[in-house]
């Protein structure tokens, strides 16, 4: 899923839970996953690690066909900048990456100089 999520995709978000200190991360990848529940830690079945997820409010309805909820999940892969600072994303970022400091319930998050070019290029010291 692209980082270009619309606010209409996120209208029932009630909160964001971070599993790691997101202030230390230049970017996180975001995707909409289908889950059985709206308010618990979702299962994680892709490579890398989940660093956060959205909680849905009581008004969120599951998909009528699948019975599953669409929820935002934030994750990183093993070749992302936090694990390999001199790797592929030393500068630049994957298409679905946004600055975690710009994420809020119902807000898709945005790309920033730090997320796109790295903490050194943005003039912010790495934690």
Describe what this molecule looks like in 3D:
The chain is mainly beta and 127 residues long. It has one helix spanning 113-117; strands at 13-18, 28-35, 49-56, 69-76, 97-98. The model is unreliable at 122-127 (pLDDT under 50). The two termini are 28 Å apart. Strands 1-3-4-2-5 form a 5-stranded antiparallel sheet, with no helix packed on it. The chain is elongated and about 45 Å long. It is built from 1 helix and 5 strands.
- What does the average pLDDT come to? 89
Outline, from the CA principal axes?
elongated
Rg of Cα set: 15 Å
Distance between the termini: 28 Å
What string, H for helix and E for strand, traces the elements in order? Answer: EEEEEH
- List the strand order in the largest sheet: 1-3-4-2-5
Instruction: Look at the helices and sheets and give the structural class.
Output: mainly beta
Largest sheet: 5 strands, antiparallel
Binned strand content: 25-35%
Quick one: how many beta strands? 5
Q: Report helical residue fraction.
A: under 10%
Number of helical elements: 1
List low-confidence stretches.
122-127
Write out key terms for the chains shown:
5-stranded antiparallel β-sheet, disordered C terminus, 25% strand, 4% helix, 127 residues, elongated, mainly beta
